[in-house]
Specification:
The complex is a heterodimer of chains A (about 170) and B (about 400).
Chain A lengths: L7 H23 L2 H17 L10 H18 L26 H9 L3 H12 L4 H8 L3 H25 L2
Helix pairs in contact in A: 1-2, 1-3, 2-3, 3-5, 4-7, 5-7, 6-7
Chain B lengths: L2 H13 L9 H33 L4 E2 L23 E9 L7 E7 L5 E8 L3 E10 L7 E5 L7 E2 L3 E6 L8 E6 L5 E3 L11 E4 L2 E5 L8 E5 L7 E5 L1 E7 L2 E7 L5 E9 L5 E4 L14 E4 L3 E6 L2 E6 L5 E4 L12 E7 L3 E8 L8 E6 L4 E6 L2 E4 L2 E6 L2 E7 L1
Antiparallel strand pairs in B: 1-2, 2-29, 3-4, 4-5, 5-6, 7-8, 8-9, 9-10, 11-12, 12-13, 13-14, 15-16, 16-17, 17-18, 19-20, 20-21, 21-22, 23-24, 24-25, 25-26, 27-28, 28-29
Classes of the chains: A mainly alpha (about 170), B mainly beta (about 400).
Chain lengths: ~170, ~400
Protein backbone atom coordinates (compact mmCIF):
# COMPACT_ATOMS: atom_id res chain seq x y z
CA UNK A 1 0.00 0.00 0.00
CA UNK A 2 1.35 3.34 -0.87
CA UNK A 3 -1.06 5.57 0.98
CA UNK A 4 -4.43 5.99 2.65
CA UNK A 5 -6.22 5.37 -0.65
CA UNK A 6 -4.94 1.79 -0.67
CA UNK A 7 -2.70 2.61 -3.63
CA UNK A 8 -5.66 3.34 -5.90
CA UNK A 9 -4.28 6.74 -6.77
CA UNK A 10 -1.30 4.85 -8.06
CA UNK A 11 -3.68 2.71 -10.11
CA UNK A 12 -5.27 5.81 -11.63
CA UNK A 13 -1.86 7.15 -12.56
CA UNK A 14 -0.95 3.82 -14.06
CA UNK A 15 -4.02 3.94 -16.31
CA UNK A 16 -3.29 7.51 -17.33
CA UNK A 17 0.27 6.66 -18.38
CA UNK A 18 0.02 3.15 -19.78
CA UNK A 19 -3.45 2.88 -21.33
CA UNK A 20 -2.28 3.69 -24.89
CA UNK A 21 0.37 0.96 -24.84
CA UNK A 22 -1.98 -1.55 -23.24
CA UNK A 23 -4.69 -0.74 -25.74
CA UNK A 24 -2.25 -1.37 -28.60
CA UNK A 25 -1.35 -4.68 -27.04
CA UNK A 26 -5.04 -5.58 -26.78
CA UNK A 27 -5.38 -4.67 -30.44
CA UNK A 28 -2.55 -7.05 -31.34
CA UNK A 29 -4.21 -9.80 -29.34
CA UNK A 30 -7.69 -9.32 -30.78
CA UNK A 31 -7.13 -7.83 -34.23
CA UNK A 32 -9.89 -5.25 -34.02
CA UNK A 33 -10.63 -2.10 -32.06
CA UNK A 34 -13.99 -3.17 -30.64
CA UNK A 35 -12.65 -6.36 -29.05
CA UNK A 36 -9.48 -4.55 -28.00
CA UNK A 37 -11.55 -2.04 -26.08
CA UNK A 38 -13.50 -4.80 -24.32
CA UNK A 39 -10.33 -6.71 -23.53
CA UNK A 40 -8.29 -3.86 -22.09
CA UNK A 41 -11.32 -2.65 -20.16
CA UNK A 42 -11.90 -6.05 -18.58
CA UNK A 43 -8.22 -6.67 -17.82
CA UNK A 44 -7.72 -3.26 -16.21
CA UNK A 45 -10.96 -3.57 -14.27
CA UNK A 46 -9.83 -6.89 -12.82
CA UNK A 47 -6.44 -5.42 -12.02
CA UNK A 48 -8.04 -2.43 -10.36
CA UNK A 49 -10.31 -4.61 -8.22
CA UNK A 50 -7.34 -6.71 -7.15
CA UNK A 51 -4.95 -3.77 -6.91
CA UNK A 52 -4.20 -4.28 -3.24
CA UNK A 53 -3.08 -7.82 -4.05
CA UNK A 54 -1.10 -7.05 -7.20
CA UNK A 55 2.34 -7.57 -5.78
CA UNK A 56 4.56 -5.69 -8.19
CA UNK A 57 2.80 -2.37 -8.30
CA UNK A 58 5.99 -0.79 -9.57
CA UNK A 59 5.54 -2.91 -12.70
CA UNK A 60 1.86 -3.87 -12.99
CA UNK A 61 1.99 -3.73 -16.75
CA UNK A 62 3.26 -7.28 -16.99
CA UNK A 63 0.35 -8.36 -14.80
CA UNK A 64 -2.18 -6.62 -17.05
CA UNK A 65 -0.61 -8.06 -20.20
CA UNK A 66 -0.72 -11.54 -18.73
CA UNK A 67 -4.34 -11.00 -17.74
CA UNK A 68 -5.20 -9.98 -21.28
CA UNK A 69 -3.43 -12.97 -22.78
CA UNK A 70 -5.18 -15.28 -20.31
CA UNK A 71 -8.58 -13.83 -21.09
CA UNK A 72 -7.94 -14.37 -24.79
CA UNK A 73 -6.62 -17.88 -24.22
CA UNK A 74 -9.64 -18.87 -22.18
CA UNK A 75 -11.96 -17.87 -24.96
CA UNK A 76 -10.59 -20.97 -26.59
CA UNK A 77 -10.49 -23.15 -23.50
CA UNK A 78 -14.24 -23.11 -23.15
CA UNK A 79 -14.96 -23.06 -26.81
CA UNK A 80 -18.07 -23.04 -28.82
CA UNK A 81 -18.51 -25.86 -31.25
CA UNK A 82 -16.26 -25.79 -34.23
CA UNK A 83 -17.93 -25.53 -37.61
CA UNK A 84 -16.65 -27.18 -40.72
CA UNK A 85 -15.12 -24.80 -43.22
CA UNK A 86 -14.77 -25.01 -46.96
CA UNK A 87 -10.99 -25.16 -47.01
CA UNK A 88 -9.06 -27.85 -45.21
CA UNK A 89 -7.39 -26.12 -42.27
CA UNK A 90 -4.19 -28.08 -42.32
CA UNK A 91 -2.30 -29.21 -45.35
CA UNK A 92 1.39 -29.89 -45.67
CA UNK A 93 3.04 -27.09 -47.64
CA UNK A 94 6.48 -26.07 -48.66
CA UNK A 95 8.03 -23.48 -46.39
CA UNK A 96 8.10 -20.87 -49.09
CA UNK A 97 5.69 -18.59 -47.32
CA UNK A 98 8.13 -15.82 -46.44
CA UNK A 99 7.58 -13.86 -49.63
CA UNK A 100 3.83 -13.94 -49.20
CA UNK A 101 3.90 -12.16 -45.86
CA UNK A 102 4.15 -8.90 -47.73
CA UNK A 103 0.46 -9.17 -48.51
CA UNK A 104 -0.66 -7.60 -45.24
CA UNK A 105 -4.39 -7.69 -45.79
CA UNK A 106 -4.36 -11.35 -46.68
CA UNK A 107 -2.34 -12.10 -43.58
CA UNK A 108 -4.70 -10.02 -41.46
CA UNK A 109 -7.69 -12.06 -42.50
CA UNK A 110 -5.73 -15.27 -41.95
CA UNK A 111 -4.85 -14.14 -38.45
CA UNK A 112 -8.45 -13.16 -37.81
CA UNK A 113 -9.54 -16.70 -38.66
CA UNK A 114 -7.41 -18.21 -35.89
CA UNK A 115 -9.02 -19.25 -32.62
CA UNK A 116 -8.25 -16.70 -29.89
CA UNK A 117 -5.89 -18.97 -28.01
CA UNK A 118 -3.78 -19.66 -31.07
CA UNK A 119 -3.50 -15.95 -31.71
CA UNK A 120 -2.54 -15.35 -28.08
CA UNK A 121 0.22 -17.94 -28.39
CA UNK A 122 1.51 -16.25 -31.55
CA UNK A 123 1.53 -12.87 -29.85
CA UNK A 124 3.39 -14.10 -26.79
CA UNK A 125 5.87 -16.15 -28.80
CA UNK A 126 6.58 -13.85 -31.74
CA UNK A 127 5.63 -10.35 -30.57
CA UNK A 128 6.60 -10.59 -26.92
CA UNK A 129 9.28 -13.10 -27.89
CA UNK A 130 8.66 -15.20 -24.80
CA UNK A 131 10.04 -18.71 -24.63
CA UNK A 132 7.69 -21.70 -24.76
CA UNK A 133 8.02 -22.10 -20.99
CA UNK A 134 7.27 -18.42 -20.34
CA UNK A 135 4.29 -18.53 -22.70
CA UNK A 136 2.94 -21.62 -20.97
CA UNK A 137 3.28 -19.93 -17.59
CA UNK A 138 1.56 -16.79 -18.84
CA UNK A 139 -1.36 -18.72 -20.30
CA UNK A 140 -1.64 -21.26 -17.50
CA UNK A 141 -1.19 -24.25 -19.79
CA UNK A 142 1.45 -26.85 -20.57
CA UNK A 143 4.51 -26.30 -22.72
CA UNK A 144 3.17 -29.01 -25.02
CA UNK A 145 -0.01 -27.02 -25.56
CA UNK A 146 2.02 -23.95 -26.48
CA UNK A 147 4.07 -25.95 -28.96
CA UNK A 148 1.05 -27.55 -30.56
CA UNK A 149 -0.89 -24.30 -30.73
CA UNK A 150 2.00 -22.41 -32.29
CA UNK A 151 2.63 -25.19 -34.75
CA UNK A 152 -1.02 -25.42 -35.77
CA UNK A 153 -1.35 -21.65 -36.02
CA UNK A 154 1.67 -21.34 -38.30
CA UNK A 155 0.44 -24.26 -40.40
CA UNK A 156 -2.96 -22.61 -40.82
CA UNK A 157 -1.37 -19.29 -41.77
CA UNK A 158 0.87 -20.95 -44.30
CA UNK A 159 -2.04 -22.84 -45.85
CA UNK A 160 -4.22 -19.75 -46.13
CA UNK A 161 -1.39 -17.74 -47.61
CA UNK A 162 -0.58 -20.55 -49.98
CA UNK A 163 -4.17 -21.03 -51.12
CA UNK A 164 -4.59 -17.31 -51.69
CA UNK A 165 -1.35 -17.23 -53.64
CA UNK A 166 -2.50 -20.12 -55.82
CA UNK A 167 -5.82 -18.43 -56.50
CA UNK A 168 -3.96 -15.35 -57.66
CA UNK A 169 -1.84 -17.50 -59.94
CA UNK B 1 12.63 -18.23 -34.41
CA UNK B 2 12.38 -18.67 -38.17
CA UNK B 3 11.86 -15.99 -40.80
CA UNK B 4 8.18 -16.70 -41.17
CA UNK B 5 7.61 -16.47 -37.42
CA UNK B 6 9.60 -13.25 -37.23
CA UNK B 7 7.58 -11.78 -40.10
CA UNK B 8 4.35 -12.66 -38.28
CA UNK B 9 5.57 -10.88 -35.15
CA UNK B 10 6.61 -7.78 -37.09
CA UNK B 11 3.31 -7.71 -38.93
CA UNK B 12 1.31 -7.86 -35.70
CA UNK B 13 3.38 -5.11 -34.11
CA UNK B 14 3.09 -2.89 -37.18
CA UNK B 15 -0.70 -3.17 -37.37
CA UNK B 16 -1.06 -1.79 -33.85
CA UNK B 17 1.29 1.11 -34.44
CA UNK B 18 -1.30 3.75 -35.25
CA UNK B 19 -4.38 2.74 -33.28
CA UNK B 20 -5.56 5.36 -30.82
CA UNK B 21 -7.31 4.91 -27.49
CA UNK B 22 -11.10 5.43 -27.75
CA UNK B 23 -12.32 8.59 -26.01
CA UNK B 24 -13.06 8.31 -22.28
CA UNK B 25 -11.93 4.68 -22.05
CA UNK B 26 -9.81 5.44 -18.99
CA UNK B 27 -12.76 7.02 -17.19
CA UNK B 28 -15.01 4.08 -18.03
CA UNK B 29 -12.45 1.66 -16.59
CA UNK B 30 -12.19 3.65 -13.37
CA UNK B 31 -15.97 3.66 -13.01
CA UNK B 32 -16.15 -0.11 -13.57
CA UNK B 33 -13.46 -0.70 -10.97
CA UNK B 34 -15.38 1.34 -8.41
CA UNK B 35 -18.65 -0.49 -9.13
CA UNK B 36 -17.07 -3.94 -9.02
CA UNK B 37 -15.25 -3.25 -5.75
CA UNK B 38 -18.55 -2.21 -4.25
CA UNK B 39 -20.31 -5.37 -5.49
CA UNK B 40 -17.54 -7.59 -4.13
CA UNK B 41 -17.87 -6.04 -0.69
CA UNK B 42 -21.63 -6.68 -0.77
CA UNK B 43 -21.08 -10.28 -1.90
CA UNK B 44 -18.60 -10.91 0.90
CA UNK B 45 -21.04 -9.62 3.49
CA UNK B 46 -23.89 -11.72 2.01
CA UNK B 47 -21.81 -14.89 1.94
CA UNK B 48 -20.65 -14.51 5.53
CA UNK B 49 -24.13 -13.95 6.92
CA UNK B 50 -25.73 -16.73 4.87
CA UNK B 51 -23.15 -19.24 6.08
CA UNK B 52 -23.91 -18.43 9.69
CA UNK B 53 -27.63 -18.86 9.05
CA UNK B 54 -27.19 -22.38 7.62
CA UNK B 55 -24.89 -23.50 10.42
CA UNK B 56 -27.54 -22.60 12.96
CA UNK B 57 -30.23 -24.44 11.04
CA UNK B 58 -28.56 -27.80 10.23
CA UNK B 59 -31.17 -30.47 10.95
CA UNK B 60 -31.90 -33.82 9.29
CA UNK B 61 -33.70 -32.03 6.52
CA UNK B 62 -32.59 -28.62 5.37
CA UNK B 63 -34.51 -25.73 3.97
CA UNK B 64 -32.26 -23.90 1.58
CA UNK B 65 -31.77 -20.23 2.00
CA UNK B 66 -32.32 -18.91 -1.45
CA UNK B 67 -32.01 -15.71 -3.33
CA UNK B 68 -35.50 -14.73 -4.37
CA UNK B 69 -35.96 -13.55 -7.94
CA UNK B 70 -35.93 -9.79 -8.37
CA UNK B 71 -34.77 -9.20 -4.80
CA UNK B 72 -31.55 -7.53 -3.73
CA UNK B 73 -28.62 -9.85 -3.05
CA UNK B 74 -28.69 -9.01 0.63
CA UNK B 75 -32.12 -10.63 0.89
CA UNK B 76 -30.34 -14.01 0.99
CA UNK B 77 -28.94 -13.14 4.38
CA UNK B 78 -32.29 -12.84 6.13
CA UNK B 79 -33.75 -15.64 8.26
CA UNK B 80 -37.17 -15.36 6.65
CA UNK B 81 -38.11 -18.83 5.33
CA UNK B 82 -37.65 -18.92 1.58
CA UNK B 83 -40.38 -19.94 -0.80
CA UNK B 84 -40.43 -22.50 -2.24
CA UNK B 85 -38.31 -24.92 -0.22
CA UNK B 86 -36.39 -27.87 -1.48
CA UNK B 87 -36.06 -30.50 1.22
CA UNK B 88 -32.69 -32.22 1.38
CA UNK B 89 -31.48 -34.91 3.76
CA UNK B 90 -28.27 -36.93 4.23
CA UNK B 91 -26.64 -33.52 4.21
CA UNK B 92 -22.86 -33.25 4.33
CA UNK B 93 -20.44 -30.38 4.07
CA UNK B 94 -17.49 -30.30 1.68
CA UNK B 95 -14.97 -27.64 2.68
CA UNK B 96 -13.63 -25.73 -0.30
CA UNK B 97 -10.19 -24.99 1.05
CA UNK B 98 -7.72 -27.42 -0.51
CA UNK B 99 -4.25 -28.49 0.52
CA UNK B 100 -1.90 -26.08 -1.22
CA UNK B 101 -4.11 -23.05 -0.75
CA UNK B 102 -6.41 -23.24 -3.78
CA UNK B 103 -10.17 -23.35 -3.42
CA UNK B 104 -12.28 -26.24 -4.68
CA UNK B 105 -14.52 -25.22 -7.54
CA UNK B 106 -16.99 -27.92 -8.63
CA UNK B 107 -17.28 -29.05 -12.23
CA UNK B 108 -19.79 -31.89 -12.01
CA UNK B 109 -21.87 -34.12 -9.75
CA UNK B 110 -22.26 -37.85 -10.32
CA UNK B 111 -25.49 -39.77 -9.83
CA UNK B 112 -23.92 -41.52 -6.80
CA UNK B 113 -23.17 -38.18 -5.13
CA UNK B 114 -19.54 -37.90 -6.22
CA UNK B 115 -18.63 -34.23 -6.57
CA UNK B 116 -15.60 -33.42 -8.74
CA UNK B 117 -13.87 -30.15 -9.45
CA UNK B 118 -10.62 -28.31 -9.69
CA UNK B 119 -8.61 -25.99 -7.49
CA UNK B 120 -8.87 -22.31 -8.32
CA UNK B 121 -7.84 -18.97 -6.95
CA UNK B 122 -8.92 -15.54 -8.02
CA UNK B 123 -6.95 -12.33 -7.68
CA UNK B 124 -8.51 -10.38 -10.50
CA UNK B 125 -8.05 -13.27 -12.88
CA UNK B 126 -8.67 -16.92 -12.16
CA UNK B 127 -5.85 -19.40 -11.71
CA UNK B 128 -6.63 -23.11 -11.95
CA UNK B 129 -4.38 -25.69 -10.36
CA UNK B 130 -4.69 -28.18 -13.24
CA UNK B 131 -5.76 -30.95 -10.87
CA UNK B 132 -8.94 -32.96 -10.47
CA UNK B 133 -10.34 -33.30 -6.97
CA UNK B 134 -13.22 -35.40 -5.67
CA UNK B 135 -15.43 -35.67 -2.64
CA UNK B 136 -18.77 -37.35 -2.13
CA UNK B 137 -21.67 -38.35 0.12
CA UNK B 138 -19.35 -38.85 3.09
CA UNK B 139 -18.35 -35.21 2.85
CA UNK B 140 -14.96 -33.88 3.88
CA UNK B 141 -12.19 -32.05 2.08
CA UNK B 142 -11.81 -33.20 -1.54
CA UNK B 143 -8.84 -35.39 -2.33
CA UNK B 144 -6.77 -35.17 -5.47
CA UNK B 145 -7.54 -37.69 -8.21
CA UNK B 146 -5.00 -36.76 -10.83
CA UNK B 147 -3.38 -33.85 -12.59
CA UNK B 148 -5.32 -32.56 -15.59
CA UNK B 149 -3.56 -29.65 -17.32
CA UNK B 150 -5.85 -27.16 -18.98
CA UNK B 151 -8.93 -28.60 -17.29
CA UNK B 152 -12.16 -26.84 -18.29
CA UNK B 153 -14.84 -29.49 -17.91
CA UNK B 154 -15.28 -32.98 -16.46
CA UNK B 155 -18.03 -35.51 -15.79
CA UNK B 156 -18.32 -38.53 -13.54
CA UNK B 157 -20.66 -41.38 -12.73
CA UNK B 158 -18.76 -42.18 -9.56
CA UNK B 159 -16.96 -45.14 -11.12
CA UNK B 160 -14.90 -43.09 -13.50
CA UNK B 161 -14.08 -39.50 -14.29
CA UNK B 162 -13.69 -38.18 -17.83
CA UNK B 163 -12.35 -34.87 -19.06
CA UNK B 164 -10.95 -33.31 -22.27
CA UNK B 165 -7.24 -32.66 -22.38
CA UNK B 166 -4.84 -31.46 -25.03
CA UNK B 167 -2.46 -34.34 -25.62
CA UNK B 168 -1.38 -34.18 -29.24
CA UNK B 169 -0.89 -31.77 -32.10
CA UNK B 170 -3.61 -33.07 -34.37
CA UNK B 171 -6.54 -32.61 -31.98
CA UNK B 172 -7.58 -29.83 -29.68
CA UNK B 173 -8.64 -32.39 -27.07
CA UNK B 174 -8.60 -36.10 -26.41
CA UNK B 175 -10.91 -37.62 -23.82
CA UNK B 176 -9.10 -38.77 -20.68
CA UNK B 177 -10.53 -41.34 -18.31
CA UNK B 178 -9.61 -42.18 -14.72
CA UNK B 179 -11.06 -44.90 -12.52
CA UNK B 180 -10.24 -45.89 -8.95
CA UNK B 181 -6.55 -45.33 -8.32
CA UNK B 182 -5.40 -46.33 -11.81
CA UNK B 183 -3.46 -43.91 -13.98
CA UNK B 184 -5.60 -41.92 -16.44
CA UNK B 185 -6.01 -43.42 -19.91
CA UNK B 186 -6.91 -41.78 -23.18
CA UNK B 187 -10.15 -43.01 -24.73
CA UNK B 188 -9.75 -43.55 -28.44
CA UNK B 189 -7.74 -41.43 -30.83
CA UNK B 190 -10.39 -39.43 -32.68
CA UNK B 191 -10.46 -36.52 -30.26
CA UNK B 192 -13.47 -35.18 -28.44
CA UNK B 193 -15.65 -32.29 -29.56
CA UNK B 194 -15.20 -29.02 -27.73
CA UNK B 195 -18.45 -28.70 -25.83
CA UNK B 196 -19.47 -29.57 -22.29
CA UNK B 197 -22.27 -31.83 -23.52
CA UNK B 198 -19.92 -33.65 -25.91
CA UNK B 199 -19.01 -36.29 -23.33
CA UNK B 200 -20.73 -37.97 -20.40
CA UNK B 201 -20.54 -40.94 -18.05
CA UNK B 202 -23.38 -42.88 -16.47
CA UNK B 203 -23.75 -46.36 -14.98
CA UNK B 204 -20.20 -47.35 -15.91
CA UNK B 205 -20.38 -46.28 -19.57
CA UNK B 206 -18.68 -43.32 -21.18
CA UNK B 207 -20.06 -41.74 -24.36
CA UNK B 208 -18.63 -38.87 -26.36
CA UNK B 209 -18.64 -37.08 -29.70
CA UNK B 210 -15.45 -37.12 -31.69
CA UNK B 211 -13.80 -33.95 -32.92
CA UNK B 212 -15.98 -32.55 -35.66
CA UNK B 213 -13.17 -31.79 -38.05
CA UNK B 214 -11.83 -35.31 -38.00
CA UNK B 215 -14.76 -37.56 -38.77
CA UNK B 216 -18.37 -37.07 -39.66
CA UNK B 217 -20.14 -36.72 -36.32
CA UNK B 218 -19.67 -40.07 -34.66
CA UNK B 219 -20.83 -40.84 -31.12
CA UNK B 220 -18.52 -43.30 -29.36
CA UNK B 221 -18.99 -45.49 -26.30
CA UNK B 222 -16.62 -47.32 -23.95
CA UNK B 223 -17.34 -49.47 -20.91
CA UNK B 224 -14.09 -48.83 -19.13
CA UNK B 225 -11.04 -46.65 -19.38
CA UNK B 226 -9.12 -49.59 -20.87
CA UNK B 227 -11.65 -50.75 -23.42
CA UNK B 228 -11.26 -50.02 -27.11
CA UNK B 229 -14.09 -47.57 -27.88
CA UNK B 230 -16.82 -48.56 -30.30
CA UNK B 231 -18.76 -46.25 -32.60
CA UNK B 232 -22.35 -46.03 -31.40
CA UNK B 233 -24.02 -43.68 -33.88
CA UNK B 234 -23.03 -41.73 -36.97
CA UNK B 235 -24.55 -38.53 -38.30
CA UNK B 236 -25.27 -36.77 -35.04
CA UNK B 237 -23.94 -35.41 -31.78
CA UNK B 238 -24.78 -36.82 -28.40
CA UNK B 239 -26.16 -34.01 -26.25
CA UNK B 240 -27.09 -35.91 -23.08
CA UNK B 241 -26.82 -39.36 -21.58
CA UNK B 242 -29.06 -41.02 -19.03
CA UNK B 243 -28.34 -44.73 -19.04
CA UNK B 244 -29.23 -46.54 -21.22
CA UNK B 245 -30.34 -43.71 -23.48
CA UNK B 246 -28.02 -41.42 -25.41
CA UNK B 247 -29.92 -38.42 -26.76
CA UNK B 248 -28.49 -37.53 -30.16
CA UNK B 249 -29.11 -34.39 -32.20
CA UNK B 250 -28.92 -34.99 -35.94
CA UNK B 251 -26.19 -33.05 -37.72
CA UNK B 252 -26.09 -31.47 -41.15
CA UNK B 253 -23.21 -32.59 -43.32
CA UNK B 254 -21.34 -29.34 -42.88
CA UNK B 255 -22.23 -29.03 -39.20
CA UNK B 256 -25.15 -27.66 -37.21
CA UNK B 257 -28.14 -29.47 -35.72
CA UNK B 258 -30.71 -30.36 -38.35
CA UNK B 259 -33.65 -30.61 -35.92
CA UNK B 260 -33.78 -34.42 -35.59
CA UNK B 261 -33.62 -35.99 -32.14
CA UNK B 262 -32.76 -39.66 -31.84
CA UNK B 263 -32.71 -41.81 -28.73
CA UNK B 264 -29.98 -44.46 -28.93
CA UNK B 265 -29.80 -47.44 -26.58
CA UNK B 266 -26.17 -47.64 -25.55
CA UNK B 267 -26.37 -51.40 -24.93
CA UNK B 268 -28.13 -52.55 -28.08
CA UNK B 269 -27.50 -49.64 -30.42
CA UNK B 270 -31.24 -49.51 -31.20
CA UNK B 271 -32.42 -46.10 -32.31
CA UNK B 272 -35.79 -44.43 -31.78
CA UNK B 273 -36.55 -41.08 -33.39
CA UNK B 274 -38.30 -38.66 -31.04
CA UNK B 275 -40.83 -36.40 -32.67
CA UNK B 276 -41.03 -33.14 -30.80
CA UNK B 277 -44.23 -31.27 -30.33
CA UNK B 278 -44.37 -27.82 -28.81
CA UNK B 279 -42.66 -24.51 -29.36
CA UNK B 280 -39.01 -25.54 -29.50
CA UNK B 281 -36.93 -27.88 -31.58
CA UNK B 282 -33.20 -28.56 -31.56
CA UNK B 283 -32.31 -27.01 -34.92
CA UNK B 284 -29.69 -24.32 -34.45
CA UNK B 285 -29.22 -25.02 -30.75
CA UNK B 286 -25.61 -26.22 -30.98
CA UNK B 287 -24.50 -23.81 -28.28
CA UNK B 288 -27.20 -24.70 -25.75
CA UNK B 289 -26.55 -26.51 -22.47
CA UNK B 290 -28.24 -29.93 -22.26
CA UNK B 291 -29.16 -32.41 -19.53
CA UNK B 292 -31.28 -35.54 -19.23
CA UNK B 293 -32.74 -37.90 -16.67
CA UNK B 294 -34.86 -41.01 -17.24
CA UNK B 295 -37.93 -38.97 -18.13
CA UNK B 296 -36.83 -35.73 -19.72
CA UNK B 297 -34.31 -34.01 -21.93
CA UNK B 298 -33.81 -30.33 -21.15
CA UNK B 299 -31.87 -27.59 -22.84
CA UNK B 300 -31.08 -24.03 -21.86
CA UNK B 301 -30.33 -21.22 -24.25
CA UNK B 302 -31.54 -17.75 -25.08
CA UNK B 303 -32.37 -17.14 -21.43
CA UNK B 304 -34.92 -19.95 -21.11
CA UNK B 305 -35.11 -23.67 -20.33
CA UNK B 306 -37.09 -26.10 -22.43
CA UNK B 307 -38.10 -29.48 -21.02
CA UNK B 308 -38.97 -32.36 -23.33
CA UNK B 309 -40.96 -35.31 -22.02
CA UNK B 310 -39.17 -38.18 -23.75
CA UNK B 311 -42.19 -40.50 -23.58
CA UNK B 312 -44.65 -38.15 -25.26
CA UNK B 313 -42.32 -35.88 -27.22
CA UNK B 314 -44.05 -32.85 -25.73
CA UNK B 315 -41.65 -29.95 -25.23
CA UNK B 316 -42.51 -26.94 -23.12
CA UNK B 317 -40.61 -23.80 -22.30
CA UNK B 318 -40.41 -23.18 -18.56
CA UNK B 319 -41.73 -19.70 -17.79
CA UNK B 320 -38.64 -18.48 -15.95
CA UNK B 321 -35.83 -16.14 -16.87
CA UNK B 322 -32.43 -17.73 -16.44
CA UNK B 323 -29.83 -15.86 -14.42
CA UNK B 324 -26.85 -14.63 -16.38
CA UNK B 325 -23.40 -13.36 -15.67
CA UNK B 326 -21.22 -11.21 -17.83
CA UNK B 327 -17.56 -11.25 -18.64
CA UNK B 328 -15.44 -10.31 -21.60
CA UNK B 329 -15.39 -14.00 -22.54
CA UNK B 330 -19.06 -14.52 -21.92
CA UNK B 331 -20.35 -16.99 -19.37
CA UNK B 332 -19.97 -20.65 -18.47
CA UNK B 333 -23.42 -22.24 -18.55
CA UNK B 334 -24.16 -25.66 -17.09
CA UNK B 335 -27.45 -27.52 -16.99
CA UNK B 336 -27.70 -30.63 -14.81
CA UNK B 337 -30.61 -32.97 -14.25
CA UNK B 338 -31.42 -35.00 -11.17
CA UNK B 339 -34.37 -37.31 -10.75
CA UNK B 340 -36.43 -34.50 -9.25
CA UNK B 341 -34.79 -31.20 -10.12
CA UNK B 342 -33.09 -29.39 -12.97
CA UNK B 343 -30.32 -26.95 -12.09
CA UNK B 344 -28.96 -24.21 -14.30
CA UNK B 345 -25.74 -22.49 -13.19
CA UNK B 346 -23.79 -19.66 -14.74
CA UNK B 347 -20.56 -17.85 -13.97
CA UNK B 348 -18.31 -15.53 -15.95
CA UNK B 349 -15.64 -17.28 -17.97
CA UNK B 350 -12.27 -16.67 -16.38
CA UNK B 351 -14.04 -14.50 -13.82
CA UNK B 352 -14.65 -14.62 -10.12
CA UNK B 353 -16.26 -18.01 -9.36
CA UNK B 354 -17.94 -16.50 -6.32
CA UNK B 355 -20.21 -14.51 -8.63
CA UNK B 356 -21.92 -17.67 -9.92
CA UNK B 357 -25.72 -17.84 -9.92
CA UNK B 358 -28.11 -20.74 -10.22
CA UNK B 359 -31.73 -21.50 -10.87
CA UNK B 360 -33.29 -24.67 -9.47
CA UNK B 361 -36.42 -26.04 -11.13
CA UNK B 362 -38.44 -28.69 -9.31
CA UNK B 363 -39.79 -31.07 -11.95
CA UNK B 364 -42.50 -32.36 -9.57
CA UNK B 365 -44.04 -29.06 -8.65
CA UNK B 366 -43.00 -26.95 -11.67
CA UNK B 367 -41.65 -24.32 -9.30
CA UNK B 368 -38.27 -22.66 -9.34
CA UNK B 369 -36.03 -20.56 -7.17
CA UNK B 370 -32.65 -18.90 -7.47
CA UNK B 371 -29.48 -19.46 -5.53
CA UNK B 372 -26.37 -17.35 -5.19
CA UNK B 373 -23.47 -19.63 -6.19
CA UNK B 374 -23.15 -22.67 -8.42
CA UNK B 375 -25.30 -25.78 -7.94
CA UNK B 376 -25.66 -29.25 -9.47
CA UNK B 377 -28.15 -32.12 -9.61
CA UNK B 378 -27.63 -35.80 -10.49
CA UNK B 379 -29.71 -38.83 -9.56
CA UNK B 380 -31.20 -38.07 -6.16
CA UNK B 381 -28.33 -35.77 -5.22
CA UNK B 382 -28.14 -32.02 -5.09
CA UNK B 383 -25.04 -29.94 -4.35
CA UNK B 384 -24.74 -26.21 -3.95
CA UNK B 385 -22.12 -23.70 -2.90
CA UNK B 386 -22.55 -22.17 0.50
CA UNK B 387 -19.76 -19.73 1.24
CA UNK B 388 -16.61 -21.59 2.25
CA UNK B 389 -18.16 -25.03 1.63
CA UNK B 390 -20.27 -26.99 -0.77
CA UNK B 391 -23.34 -28.68 0.69
CA UNK B 392 -24.39 -32.05 -0.67
CA UNK B 393 -27.55 -33.98 0.12
CA UNK B 394 -30.35 -36.13 -1.24
CA UNK B 395 -33.48 -34.44 -2.49
CA UNK B 396 -36.54 -35.73 -0.66
Amino acid sequence: MSGPDGGWGQFDRFIAHRLPALYRYAYILTGNQHDAEDLVQEALTRTGVAWSRVKRKDDPEAYVRTTMARIMANRWRRPRRERLVADAPELPVEDGALDRVADADRLDSALASLPPRMRAVLVLRYVEELSEEETARALGCSKGTVKSQASRALAKLRVVMSLAENRHG
Amino acid sequence: MGDFERAIGEHLRARAGDVGVPPHLGERIQTRVTVRRHRRRLAEITSAVATVAVMIAVPVAVQLRVEQPRSPRLAASTTRPPRPNLRVDHLVSIPRELPGGKVFSALALGSDGTLIGQGTSFDGMSHDDGRLWRSGPAGGTPRQVTSAPGLWAAHTDGERIVWPQNTDRRHDFQLMCAEADAAPRQLGRQGVAAAEYAFAADSGIVVWNDEVNDTSHTVWAARSCDETPQPLFQGGSGVAFSYPDVLVAGEKKRGGFDGRLIQVDVDSGATVPLHLTGPSGLAGREDAAFAANRQVLAWADGGTVTVLDRRTGAAKAIPVRLPHTTGVNGEIRRLTAGNKVLVYSTQPQDGDPDTAKSLVYDLRTATSFRLAGDAYAAGDWFAWRDGASYRLGRVR
